[in-house]
Design brief:
alpha+beta; Rossmann fold; nine-stranded mixed beta sheet; 23% strand; elongated
């Protein structure tokens, strides 16, 4: 690229993920997308082609594999890293001509510096469109380049870089093109189980005439690409190539045919899913009729959608695993999966599934707590993961397919799980590493094989699962522990506490009797003026009780059994004996510009929260928070019994939890009904 083009590119201020950046760049630039080592990135930058990695546009480099971004910061790159090489601005007229007027063609010819036209390529590969099961699911860019000194010395005839295939030799170049397409297919289209079959084939590889060069037998991937080459040649050039392949490599032919059959079937499944997607979405997100308390679903919808299979592109987006079931995100719904189908029986009984267990829940991180990530990283790469920054760690892990499936178990973490599993519900909450498509499935299988059949949640915001201080996370990283504690949960640092200490913290935190006694003592010890005068009442200048309850500071104005009075809009005094403690949550502001009021009931260990939307003269007035009640019926009855007979201020009452309550008190809209 020219200097002016690079300056123009800098002004775009690219940020975010590679996928987002690729979508932005492809509108105006020719790009290559894939995994590159530091040598390939240096070569690109030396050629005037900037490189985008996650959140950084690289425009230079220094000694020791340090790359320079647009802010003149140094970014270390040691191993292969996902990146976008930005080659040139798009000349839409030239590209339109090159791909014969169709942007969905498979082969995009970018450069051709050979002396003659590449007629054989145009005839064999150049007229293919994206879509056949034997091709990758996106276009590839082809460059036909005269070899330089490096290529001549290394005897490199072709090379895949991202989505770009560089061809340096005219000898057998169609074979070489197909072989490089095979590498693209291996990277983007094969599942773990399919790669595993080729690894097993490679381990017991027999002599065969289809492997013409020693490097074609070097790795399982090269073996796949060689079989792929012969198979595709039978489709594009001559059917007789298939006879040779089936005779020389019958097992490999069978495996690759299975891959193509799976992809063909998944295309049919995807088409059916797309056709029924609207009905599926409406069934999973039904309207709720508040008058009947039932969900409204269109008659006959279930019959139409119950046999629709889920395509692989949707299946791989696992949100969590529990009760022997995978759950995936779909719109506003989290769908239970049985094989390749939606498990409608579990959706129909969702309320039953959502019922809380009698046991308390403890959340465990995986890496560094039960999985010995440090040891695995050291064994595999001979490096210290604590000395490498997160980006470098990610680079190395991405070079080892299925890295997370084979991490050794951390014995102390397993012992802690075994100590807690009989008395508590154990849930693993972990973050999938970016750039590793199989990471989620690998982690699920690791838990099953090494720990047992426990629920697993994938989340980069673990604090979203905090309800109150009884929500416990055992982790080894401050960037997970601190947000959890700030959200009101109990965060335990596995790296700084021995198992005995952790067990003591858990017992102290989840001992309901101890928590109840603590609140009771606060209530008993508080001094409250039970009979304030009207002037004291209006000024607030009288003794009040102060307690801490569920991580909130509460002022008690009227304890249970005291007399509460006030004056109505008609000037008539009303008097009420309090059946619950009544006060307000400090540091908050309600619709009346005073702190938000609350009642505290007898169930001091109850984890639910209920918010009353109170009305006056038919319109919304303010909120009353009900704490210490088990059910919405209990909370509603308690609210009404603390007002004079005939009180009609109850507009509605809603159930929530302490985390949502705290967020709402801090940032929510409190001038409208909750």
């Amino acid at each position: 690229m020219e200097r002016e083009q690079i300056i123009k590119l800098k002004e775009k201020q690219l940020s975010g993920s590679l996928i987002k950046a690729k979508e932005t760049l492809q509108k105006d630039y020719i790009v290559s997308y894939g995994k590159y080592n530091h040598y390939e990135l240096k070569k690109a930058i030396s050629s005037g082609n900037p490189v985008y990695i996650e959140n950084n546009l690289l425009v230079g480099y220094d000694k020791g594999n340090k790359f320079i971004n647009t802010k003149d910061e140094y970014i270390p790159i040691e191993k292969e890293v996902p990146a976008i090489i930005i080659e040139d601005e798009i000349n839409r007229q030239e590209i339109q001509s090159a791909i014969v007027g169709s942007f969905d063609q498979f082969a995009i010819i970018n450069k051709n510096t050979w002396d003659e036209d590449i007629l054989e390529f145009r005839k064999t590969i150049g007229n293919l469109n994206v879509g056949p099961v034997f091709l990758p699911s996106h276009s590839a860019v082809f460059n036909f380049i005269k070899p330089g000194e490096k290529e001549i010395k290394s005897k490199v005839v072709s090379m895949l870089e991202g989505i770009t295939i560089n061809v340096y030799s005219k000898d057998n170049y169609i074979d070489n093109c197909i072989h490089e397409i095979g590498h693209l297919f291996w990277r983007d289209c094969l599942k773990f189980e399919e790669r595993k079959k080729f690894n097993e084939l490679f381990e017991h590889l027999k002599a065969s005439a289809i492997y013409e060069y020693e490097w074609e037998r070097k790795t399982a991937e090269e073996v796949f690409c060689t079989i792929y080459k012969w198979y595709v040649k039978s489709i594009l050039i001559n059917k007789s190539f298939m006879n040779i392949l089936e005779y020389e490599e019958p097992e490999g032919t069978k495996i690759i045919q299975g891959v193509f059959d799976r992809i063909a079937r998944d295309k049919i499944i995807a088409a059916a899913w797309e056709a029924g997607k609207e009905d599926i979405f409406s069934y999973l997100n039904p309207k709720f009729d508040v008058t009947t308390g039932k969900y409204l679903r269109k008659a006959g919808t279930l019959e139409k959608i119950k046999d629709i299979e889920i395509p692989f592109s949707i299946l791989k987006e696992i949100k969590e695993y529990k009760n022997d079931t995978n759950y995936i995100d779909f719109g506003k719904a989290v769908i239970p999966i049985r094989g390749n189908f939606i498990d409608f029986s579990k959706i129909e009984n969702m309320e039953e599934l959502k019922k809380a267990s009698n046991k308390k829940c403890i959340y465990f991180d995986m890496d560094g707590v039960v999985a010995d990530f440090v040891k695995a990283y050291k064994n595999e790469f001979n490096r210290d993961c604590y000395k490498d920054d997160h980006f470098t760690v990610q680079q190395f892990c991405a070079t080892k397919p299925n890295f997370f499936r084979f991490i050794p178990i951390l014995d102390r973490g397993k012992e802690l799980v075994d100590s807690l599993k009989n008395n508590y519900d154990i849930v693993f909450i972990t973050t999938a590493m970016d750039g590793m498509a199989e990471c989620k499935r690998d982690k699920l299988e690791w838990v099953k094989e090494n720990i047992g059949n426990y629920p697993v949640i994938f989340s980069s915001s673990k604090e979203d699962y905090v309800i109150d201080e009884s929500s416990i996370l055992i982790d080894d990283m401050d960037y997970n522990l601190n947000p959890w504690a700030c959200a009101g949960g109990t965060a335990i640092d596995f790296s700084k506490n021995k198992n005995d200490k952790i067990l003591d913290i858990i017992a102290d935190t989840l001992d309901d009797k101890k928590a109840i006694e603590f609140v009771k003592k606060q209530l008993q010890a508080m001094e409250v003026e039970l009979n304030p005068t009207k002037d004291q009442k209006e000024s607030g200048n009288y003794k009040k009780g102060k307690i801490k309850f569920k991580s909130m500071n509460i002022v008690i104005e009227n304890p249970r059994g005291s007399i509460r009075f006030g004056f109505g809009s008609d000037g008539i005094k009303w008097v009420q004996t309090m059946k619950a403690h009544y006060g307000y949550i400090t540091g908050t502001e309600g619709a009346d510009l005073d702190p938000v009021d609350c009642f505290i009931g007898p169930k001091l260990n109850a984890s639910r929260v209920f918010i009353v939307n109170q009305k006056r003269n038919g319109a919304f007035d303010e909120h009353k928070v009900m704490l210490g009640y088990d059910s919405i019926k209990e909370a509603e009855a308690a609210y009404l019994e603390n007002y004079q007979k005939g009180w009609n201020g109850l507009m509605s009452i809603k159930q929530t939890n302490t985390k949502v309550l705290r967020d709402w008190l801090k940032e929510g809209e409190r001038t409208e009904p909750f």
